Amino acid sequence: MTEQHIEEHADAYADVDVTAWQQQIIAEFRENNGTLSGMFEGWSLLVVSTIGAKSGLVRSSLVGRVDIDGQLIIVASAMGAPRHPAWYHNIRKNPKVTVETGTETYEAIAAIPPDAQRDKLFEKVVEVAPGYGEYQAKTTREIPVVVLHRIEPAPGAERVKGMGDFLVEVHGWLRQELAELRRQVDEIVEGTVGSGTSLERPVPDLGLAMRTHCVKFCEGLKKHHTGEDLGLFPELARQFPALAPALRKLGEDHAEVGRLQDEIEQLVEAYVPGESEPTRLRAALEVLTSQLETHFDYEEKTVVTALNATAAAPNFG
């Protein structure tokens, strides 16, 4: 905010060292628990530290804060300048930030509300702080609104189960169901005679159980991935541009997993106790297990924090 303000009033600040001036204000903010004197006296401000999009270095910026419906909002107004402030470009590259309110410091993840959601928030921001409406009137760019979601609860506050926690639980259920399906197939394979081309004895009950369990697992996995592809991932990509490459990779993983699922479902459907060769099915399940483990691990590393910070787990009653 302040750096771009000086750039837009270069004549008045011709002899000012912008970086040193900003750091001096931030130092005063930190030393006085968020209280400032001079031109910023009485302003509602906080310090946001981001990772530089190009430099990779920590960059601290003093920005205005607005509290809307329990959400902590910062606005990339740059006082109506024609360009977005540097900190906004930084969070588009890496949404994890450090927030200093003057009385506490905590880690947060910065979300960029899309389209209509941004417009509604900006209207509320202007109601609380009309100056932002004046800044918007000064520039042709749409001023971004950013929501800072605290990653961990405040000291003494109860941690609310988030959507990321729910995702991990779903993965756990899918892992268990796949393990049970593999166990059933292993039992069938163990009944195979030495040649490995037929079963020593038919196991119709086990074959039926395997087919039933396969339907349950495959339907659950398809529903999970379809929900991510059509709803969860597009919404995350809109709010967190930095996650877009990882989300595309996860979508590509879904396509490969779907191909393996189709192969496994066909093998299970065609399975005839005493006639079919179950080792091919077991090999396919081993490949699927390996790919899903890699997929689940990567997904949990990349999206759980954002999901937990922005959405509560569903309540099924």
> What's the helix-strand series?
HHEEEEHEEHHEHHHH
Number of domains: 2
Backbone shape: elongated
**Cα-to-Cα separation, first versus last residue:** 45 Å
The overall pLDDT, averaged over residues, is 87
Helix content: 40-55%
Decide which structural class fits the backbone.
alpha+beta
Could you name the ranges where pLDDT drops below 50 across 5 or more consecutive residues?
Answer: 1-16, 193-203
Fold and architecture overview:
- This protein has 317 residues and is an alpha+beta fold.
- It contains nine helices and seven strands.
- A seven-stranded antiparallel sheet has the order 2-1-5-6-7-4-3, with helices on both faces.
- Helix 6 (163-190) packs antiparallel against helix 9 (279-310).
Q: Secondary-structure map with pairings?
A:
Elements: H1 2-8, H2 18-31, E1 45-51, E2 58-64, E3 66-68, E4 71-75, H3 86-93, E5 96-100, E6 105-111, H4 115-128, H5 131-138, E7 145-150, H6 163-190, H7 204-239, H8 244-270, H9 279-310
Antiparallel strand pairs: 1-2, 1-5, 3-4, 4-7, 5-6, 6-7
Keywords:
9 helices, 317 residues, seven-stranded antiparallel β-sheet, alpha+beta, 7 strands, Four Helix Bundle (Hemerythrin (Met), subunit A), disordered N terminus
State the gist of this model.
The chain is an alpha+beta fold and about 325 residues long. It has nine helices and seven strands, in the order H-H-E-E-E-E-H-E-E-H-H-E-H-H-H-H. The protein folds into two domains: about 150 residues, Roll (Pnp Oxidase, Chain A); about 150 residues, nmb1532 protein domain like (Four Helix Bundle (Hemerythrin (Met), subunit A), Up-down Bundle).
